[in-house]
Amino acid sequence: MTFFHFFNCAALTFGPHAIYYKATPLSEYDTLGTCIKAAIVYLVTTLVKLICQATFLQVSEHDDFDLGQELLKGLIGFLDVGGLYYALTQVSHRSISQDHKFQAVGLGWAFADALLHRLAPLWVGAKGLEFTWEHLLQGLESNANLVLTVSLAALGSLMWLRKNKPSALVPVIYTTAGVVAAMPSITNYLRKGLAWEFSNVVSFELLASLVMSFITWRLFCACQRPAQ
Amino acid sequence: MPHFACPADAVSRQCPNSQLDPLAIGNVCHSVRRMTVDSILLKVLRCGCRGFCGVGLQRLRGRLSGGVCHPVCTSSVVVLVRGEGAVMKGGRRQRAIGQAVVALMTVLMSMVVADAAAVVDVYRMIQYDLKGNPMGSRRAALNHHTVSGFDVQGADLSRAVVILPALKVNISSLDEFVQNKGLLGGLLLLLPQRSDETGGAEGDDSDEKVAKALAELEQWLVHNTFQYPVYFAYEDENLLKLLHEVAASDAAGRPASATNGGYKLVVSAPEAKKLTTPTITNIQGWLPGLRAEGDSLMLPTIAIVASYDTFGAAPALASGSDSNGSGVAMLLELARLFSRLYANPNTRGRYNLLFGLTSGSPYNYNGTSNWLRNFDQRLRESMEYALCLNSLGSSSDRMLLHVSKPPENAFIQQIFSEIESVAKDSDLTVELKHKKINISNSRVAWEHEQFSRQRITAVTLSHLEEPPELLQRTGGIADIRRSVNETVVLRNIKVVAESLARHIYGQQGKQVELFAAGSNLALNPSYVRSWLNLLGRTSRVAPFLGKNAPIINALHKELSQHTKDASLQHETLDSTFLFYDSTKAQLNVYQVASVTFDFIVALAVGSYLMLLFIVLFISTKGVKDFVGIFRKAPSRKYKST
């Protein structure tokens, strides 16, 4: 029944992306092209990130936490924001509203991420005889990641695309975006620096994604109002 | 069901010297699994980047081969080095690509192979045919859930592996199960922990009890047939924990099965194959005596014989220390002592000494009989007597001289009195025990009986009181190094050496001590100890040794150092015994989830996704549209004309 387990984990990992696309108006406005473009931008960004990491980071003999290295890694991680900026502003999108644009970009981004990071371990690990919770937790992590990415994309669209936003909210938007963008580094710190259990890290990620998405939603609504 | 085995065997193949804990390997596998595509790409890129700079490989290689033998990395270092050689001629770019590809392979391999939670070394029970009757365990491959006993409620034994600590086995109930041809998936017997202690001290009572129980179990096992795989493993923390958990879930009425989940044991071994023409190897050495001037007669010969091979329920664990590691160590020390005497023409005796290490002892001393058959006529006629050493290591102040000639025989009396007079000095009682040979019975209980059948006077020295049955006292699992007492072995060597010397130099009945401690002919305890240690950890079941086994070569080399014309004789084993290979394997322990659990997870995931769909749909498109999905699509109406 190991294939069954694999199927369960895969559904948990990739299902939300599909459902997000199907259930929201994204599917009605045919934003698939935007998603794919975002995914391609993600791939290129990841490649650039990896080249940077390979060039600047030291080869560590152990898996321990080294602050300098991790800071550098976090900095390199901010390249994601650059990639999102490019996907949101530079790539030409065929006549879709800004609301749908950031959702489509975030979705494509998160799906590419899930595909690249989770499919292979799932294929190899979840089909094995040995049962671990790890793959189910990874599925949950993928959900949190989707929420965070869409939030980041939403904040990005607020920062770069919306012109007439209340000036009082600007620093809040930037701080929130910074926190969301730094989330991978934070979880990395929890996992390696504080040696949290994987299940704890995942629950933290889920919680953080909910909080951040709520804040983002409030910010988005607040910026929406003056425009109306 | 796809499954990838952890390459622990690859490790043991590649680093035979390192003592790796198999469970530690399992843990390594576990951690390797966490690798993601990200880290793979990173490695590849890093390798590529460094390749351009020209320093990457050195680092990567250091990283790969560093630390203990990493299960995967060791194998790929070879690839890596080869890759380096292949791309040497190409430009830097090609080289970088080559390294990147190799690194990718490395990491991919590590991902594919890492799977099992734990890997344990297991030793398969012997499988052999005795006169065409199938004996022992007849299967090798194993893939079943675990159960902690035969009487677990609701367990399907035909699809389960029963784990039993060997000391808690109730042989009579197990026998009943086997005689009723009960179906079983497999049997895993846990042997008490192997201790590194190399003996020397008196074994206490508990040791003896353990050895006795194990010997009894082993006897029962080798004489029965099991239509399922039977494996042995040494108890350790992890296995005991596993057993404890299995027992707990069995007691709770949830024995491991496909529906309940639990632990699964997998040994992916091919079915055992027959060993074609198994060989047994006898080793002999010769110390020629000094012939007097003008003496044309051949000198009389005394043979000192010990069988070195073993037999046991698990061939890989049959490293008999007492039977007959003690005899072999004694023989080697005797050869060393007399070689020193014979090196000097002044002390060379008027006897030839023949040292024989024989094989095939569990099979009615098959090797001995072959060896004797190859004696040439002159040697056979010159033989005065043969002294066989058998099981002389365990603490006991009694030694028995087993003979097959009537004890009243004058020559036997002479040999006996020689030994007894020396033994008296070291508080050792020697008794004469007579057992007639029944020529019509093929069973040969003592090694000297093979000599007697060839009309050569022979005796066996042993602490065993009774002649062993077939395949009994042949150095199996119970016969561990700790059961042999070094001081006893040394004392016995002394007794035999002194009595032999008195016989050779015609000093019968006189109080001469040739091998006194402190003299330059003193016994060498460390020599004896090192041989006892080596023999006590080397399994020596003859059919599995082959012609070039390290232990045979070691014994041969040792004899050739002390004697002249040391030679090996390869013979084919008696065809009444047929053996099958596959004596060692790797056991993978998996914790598997139940089908029920999988269903629950599927249900949970399904309902979560459903809920997500509903929430997202309603929040973005409204309830109206949501209800609209469930309405029938308006069908086209045809107007009736």
Automatic annotation (TrEMBL), chain A:
Membrane-related topology note: Multi-pass membrane protein
Transmembrane intervals: 144-161, 168-186, 198-220
Keywords: Cell membrane, Endoplasmic reticulum, Membrane, Transmembrane, Transmembrane helix
Keyword Iron: no
Entry's localization field: Cell membrane; Endoplasmic reticulum membrane
Keyword Transmembrane: yes
InterPro entries according to UniProt: TMEM147 (IPR019164)
Top-rank lineage group of the source organism: Eukaryota
Cellular component, GO annotation: endoplasmic reticulum membrane; plasma membrane
Major localization class: membrane
Family the UniProt entry places it in: Belongs to the TMEM147 family.
Protein name: BOS complex subunit TMEM147
UniProt organism field: Physcomitrium patens (Spreading-leaved earth moss)
Gene (name only): LOC112280051
TrEMBL record, chain B:
GO cellular component: endoplasmic reticulum membrane
UniProt cross-references to SUPFAM superfamilies, sorted A to Z: Zn-dependent exopeptidases (SSF53187)
GO biological process: regulation of signal transduction
Lipid bilayer topology: Single-pass membrane protein
Keyword rRNA-binding carried by entry: no
Localisation: Endoplasmic reticulum membrane
Family classification: Belongs to the nicastrin family.
Protein name: BOS complex subunit NCLN
Record organism: Physcomitrium patens
Gene assigned in the entry: LOC112289631
